[in-house]
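TA notes, week 10

Several of you asked for a full example with nothing omitted. So below is the full record: structure tokens for the whole chain, then the designed sequence directly under it. When grading your own attempts, check the secondary structure regions first.
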């Protein structure tokens, strides 16, 4: 008798519709069944809600939920970039046959490949690589996936003295099936899990951008390789928009503007990754602190000052020694091992436990601008946004479990107000759950995650889940803002902690006279002030809002005869508490105005003979708005209104 046909499988699509297909049908074939346009745009798929994108040639063996990944989606761009990395590696091997390939992943907005090559690739080589990549793309050869035996490929790699593939394969289990991808009629082969686009011709828009050094596997004991960076997009329009954003980002680079505006400097020889704030930068820093301190009064915080160095027994008790040691600085004090604090929370638990607490005392809200030190590897430090010494607008709330919802509601109000003040109008909120490296039992974590979820839902806050991205002691709510050119920055955080109160034995006396354990909420709004200043510089392009600008106005004289009046104007504004400076030099007036504009001074107040006679100033608002001639008192009123509205 003929063998019975195998039953069809059910494929559920995101819109809820179901398609019945034969077992073994690929993701790409399902897409073509839905429509030819979708089939052509498909570069992969995701099964049953998983986050990993599978190759479009992956066969479906059973009932499943399928999300088709198209080339113009975020996940699709990742597939395109991974394929572009292979194409670039192929092009480099064609140009320099002695090149040895290490790894080449897709990254945010692009890709890279680490290459071991005697020839030093320079800027003049990048167009050559692009031209060779174009040939590979024009050939439009398919990507082929093959599953092979690990031991067989390892023997081949060793025989060819391919030290990088050998080491990668040695890290896999013997006999394990591994996958390789080829393109160009089998002329280029690379160890890879995929996925990849159907053929090289899918990579329509790309750019080879720069070269950097990178140690093999990130270990400075290993050989330094050449890392070639590139980017790839579904369309040339998308690529052009990205390159435009990149150019705008270069103009806004806080390291460049920090120098030009004389805000801060970094001397890597004597203080690596540790900024020096110059007078204007220090003014900005202090203005931000003053603003947050005003909020503390409104929202019921008490500010404290805590020590810099603690005996390591404190860090053992908190769990930081076991879970954060590699990021800490240690020192010896009279034979005792001590650590410079990387965070304030353990010190705040000591303040809480320094006296008996009652339920009537709760919630207790403590704030601390204490200086923190964390050891960041030199490869990841970056201007102000990744430093080794900084201060946070750090705070901790000790409350009863019943007070959690109210406190988080208040924090959400506080956070959103602050971000609106700084014109971060687009806000994303994420709930980050338990990481692999964590302390505390499952029950505590489930309780904490449920409490944060309830608080967000109770405030009708839309949020995403970041699986495994919580702190080691508790889950957290992260606030992500979009800057003026659309980049995401994680700023504020609210972390719910049942663990530290337990580890430090914190208690309060309840209404029945029984000891109870408080809950600890960690929170920061701006986060690191250093990092926030870097973000604010780039968000504003250095043209700070009037209320926070280090210099709010510059008084400019036209001639020497006007200097005395200019000094009177300066003093009048300073007496009112405004941050003003003067330019009474002999330079031409146009040059002085231009210099103030380049320094992004919000207002330029020009005084000449007519202004001196009438007690007025000629007002120009940054960048080039002419407000005409106004009386000094009118300008003072204007400035007062700007500060009141935080503009």
């Amino acid at each position: 008798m003929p063998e019975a046909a195998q039953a069809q499988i059910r494929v559920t699509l995101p819109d809820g519709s179901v398609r019945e297909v034969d077992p073994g049908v690929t993701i790409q074939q399902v897409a073509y069944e839905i429509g030819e346009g979708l089939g052509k745009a498909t570069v992969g798929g995701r099964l049953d809600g998983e986050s990993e994108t599978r190759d479009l040639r992956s066969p479906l063996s059973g009932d499943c939920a399928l999300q088709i990944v198209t080339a113009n989606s975020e996940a699709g761009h990742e597939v395109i970039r991974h394929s572009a990395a292979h194409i670039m590696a192929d092009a480099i091997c064609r140009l320099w046959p002695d090149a040895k390939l290490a790894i080449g992943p897709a990254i945010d907005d692009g890709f890279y490949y680490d290459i071991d090559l005697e020839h030093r690739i320079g800027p003049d080589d990048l167009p050559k690589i692009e031209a060779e990549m174009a040939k590979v793309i024009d050939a439009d050869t398919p990507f082929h996936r093959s599953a092979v035996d690990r031991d067989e490929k390892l023997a081949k790699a060793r025989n060819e003295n391919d030290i990088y593939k050998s080491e990668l394969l040695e890290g896999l289990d013997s006999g394990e099936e591994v996958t390789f991808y080829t393109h160009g009629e089998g002329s280029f082969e690379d160890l890879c899990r995929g996925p990849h686009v159907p053929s090289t011709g899918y990579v329509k828009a790309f750019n080879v951008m720069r070269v950097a050094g990178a140690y093999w596997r990130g270990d400075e004991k290993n050989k330094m390789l050449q890392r070639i960076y590139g980017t790839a997009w579904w369309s040339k329009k998308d690529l052009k928009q990205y390159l435009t954003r990149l150019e705008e980002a270069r103009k806004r680079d806080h390291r460049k503007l920090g120098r030009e505006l004389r805000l801060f400097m970094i001397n890597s020889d004597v203080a690596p990754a540790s900024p020096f704030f110059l007078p204007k930068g220090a003014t900005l820093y202090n203005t931000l602190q003053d603003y947050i301190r005003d909020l503390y009064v409104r929202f019921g915080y008490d500010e404290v000052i805590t020590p810099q160095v603690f005996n390591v027994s404190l860090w053992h008790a908190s769990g930081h020694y076991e879970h954060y040691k590699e990021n800490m600085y240690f020192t010896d004090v009279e034979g005792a091992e001590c650590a410079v604090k990387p965070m304030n929370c353990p010190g705040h638990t000591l303040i809480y436990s320094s006296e008996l607490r009652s339920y009537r005392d709760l919630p207790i809200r403590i704030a601390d601008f204490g200086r923190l030190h964390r050891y960041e590897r030199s490869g990841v430090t970056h201007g102000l946004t990744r430093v080794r010494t900084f201060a946070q607008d750090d705070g901790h709330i000790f409350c009863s479990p019943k007070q959690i919802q109210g406190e988080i509601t208040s924090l959400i109000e506080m956070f959103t107000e602050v971000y609106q003040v700084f014109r971060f109008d687009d806000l994303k909120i994420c709930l980050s759950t338990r990481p692999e490296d964590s302390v505390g039992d499952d029950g505590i974590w489930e309780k904490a995650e449920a409490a944060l979820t309830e608080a967000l839902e109770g405030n009708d806050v839309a949020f995403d889940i970041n699986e495994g991205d919580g702190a080691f002691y508790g889950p957290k709510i992260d606030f992500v803002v979009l800057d003026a050119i659309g980049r995401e920055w994680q700023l504020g955080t609210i972390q719910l902690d049942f663990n530290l109160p337990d580890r430090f034995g914190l208690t309060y006396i309840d209404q029945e006279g029984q000891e109870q354990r408080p809950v600890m909420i960690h929170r920061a709004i701006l986060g690191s002030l250093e990092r926030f200043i870097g973000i604010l510089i780039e968000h504003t392009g250095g043209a700070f809002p009037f209320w926070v600008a280090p210099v709010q106005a510059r008084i400019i004289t036209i001639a020497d005869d006007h200097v005395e009046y200019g000094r009177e104007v300066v003093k009048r504004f300073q007496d009112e508490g405004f941050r003003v400076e003067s330019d009474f030099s002999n330079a031409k007036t146009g040059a002085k105005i231009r210099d103030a504009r380049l320094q992004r001074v919000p207002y330029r107040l020009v005084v000449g003979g007519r202004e001196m006679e009438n007690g007025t100033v000629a007002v120009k608002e940054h960048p080039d708005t002419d407000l005409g001639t106004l009386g000094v008192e009118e300008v003072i009123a204007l400035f007062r209104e700007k500060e009141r509205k935080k503009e």
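The mean pLDDT is 92. Use that as a sanity check on your answer.
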